[in-house]
Amino acid sequence: MNSPPATDTASPRPSRLWIGLAFFAIYIVWGTTYLAIRFAVETIPPLVTAGIRHTIAGLILLAIAWSRGFRPRREHWLAGSVLGALFFLVGHGSLHWAEQYVSSGFAALLVASEPLWILALGAAMGQQRINWKNGLGLLMGLGGVAILTAPELTSGSSLTVGIIAVLVGAASWAVGVCVSPRLRLPGDPIGRTAVPLVCGAAMLLLAAGVSGEFSAVHWSKISVRSLLGLAYLITFGSVIAFTAYTWLLQHCSPTLVATHTFVNPLVAVLFGWLWASEPMSLRIVLATAVILGAIVLIQRGDQHAEMQAEAVQSD
User: Fold this and answer.
1) What is the rounded distance in angstroms from the CA atom of residue 59 to the CA atom of residue 201?
2) Residue 142's closest CA among 98, 165, 110, 166?
3) DSSP code, position 8
4) Which of 216, 236, 243, 304 gives the lowest tally of CB atoms within 10 Å of its CB?
5) Cα separation, 274 vs 122, whole angstroms
C-alpha cells in the first residue's frame, strides 16, 4: 500500500502548495458533496444523477487531456474500466441511491469506514501490516459503525437497505484504492482521472437504462435545487476533487490519502445540519468521535509500520 500506482512516466516531486490544495479539495469540497447529492436526487433518479455527473466531468477532463497530447491506449481503458466499476458504478452508484433514504451526514459517517476496509484488504493482500495501533483502530472503527447503525439495522426499514448500500460502496471504493497500484493507468494526471470517470459513467448510464430510471424521469418536475446540486457535483465533486484525489494517489500513500474520510464527515454533518436541518443526535456525535479516533489510530499505526520498514531497509 505504500508504493504509488504504476505510471507510464516518472513524476517530479510536487510542491507542498499543490499537495495542500489537493488535500483541501478532498477534505472540504468532498465533504460538501454529500449534501449536494441529497439535493440532486430529490427530483433526479440517483443512477441518472451519477451517470450525468460523471459523463460530463469525464468528457471535460478527457478533452483537456487530449488537447495536451494525451492519447489513451487499450491498457488504459482496461484499467479505467476496473476502477470505473469499483469507484463509480458500485461506490458512487450505491451512495447516490442510498441518499434517498439516508441523510448526507449519516452517509458521510458510514463512508468514513473506508480506511478500515483499506487496512483489512491491504493486510490480506500483504501490502500492510496490522500492529496494535491500527489493529485497535480497526476494532474501534467497527465499534463506531455499530453505534451508528445498530438501531437502524434491526428495524428492517428502507433506511437499513440504505445503510448497507453505503457500506458496500465504501468497501468497493477501498478495493479500488488497493488495486490501483497494480493497474496500468495513464501517467498523464488529467487523463488518469478522465479515463476511469468515462468508463464508470458509461456503466452508470447503462445501469440507469436497464433499471428503468430514464423512463421514470419527470424532466419538467426537476427542481432548481437539484440542478444546482448536480452542477456542483460535476464541477467541484468530480472535475476538481477527483482530479486532486487521483493525483494524490500518485504522490502519497493510499492510507494517507484516505484521511479525507475523517474530515468529510465533520464537514458533511455540519453542512447537513446548517443547510438541510439534518439531525445531530448524541449517538451521531458519539459515533463520530469513535470513528475519527479509530482513523487517527490507523494512521499512526501505519506511520509506525513505515518507520519500522525503513529501519529494516537501512540495516
Assistant:
1) 10
2) 110
3) S
4) 216
5) 37
CB–CB of 249/5 below 8 Å?
yes
* CA–CA separation, 35 and 153 (whole Å): 23
Beta carbons of 87 and 95 less than 8 angstroms apart? no
The DSSP 8-state label assigned to residue 5 in this structure reads P
Give residue 143's Cα distance to chain centre: 21
Widest Cα–Cα separation across the chain: 69
- Alpha carbon 65 to chain centroid distance? 23
Q: Tens digit of pLDDT for each residue in 31-70?
A: 999 999 999 999 999 999 999 999 999 999 999 999 999 9
Task: Please report the pLDDT score of residue 265 as a whole number.
Answer: 83
Positions in the chain whose pLDDT score sits under 70: 1-12, 152-156, 255, 302-315
Residue 224 CB-density burial (10 A; 0-12 exposed, 13-18 middle, 19+ buried): exposed
Q: pTM higher than 0.85, yes or no? A: no
pLDDT digits (tens, 9 = 90+) for 164-185: 999 999 999 999 988 988 899 9
Alpha helices in the chain (DSSP H): 16-24, 30-40, 46-67, 74-83, 93-98, 104-111, 114-124, 132-153, 158-179, 189-211, 213-216, 224-232, 241-251, 254-257, 264-276, 282-314
Our CA angle for 240, 241, 242, nearest 5°, is 100
What is the distance between the alpha carbons of residues 195 and 153, in angstroms, rounded to a whole number?
Answer: 37
Q: Which three cell numbers stand for residue 230?
A: 448536480
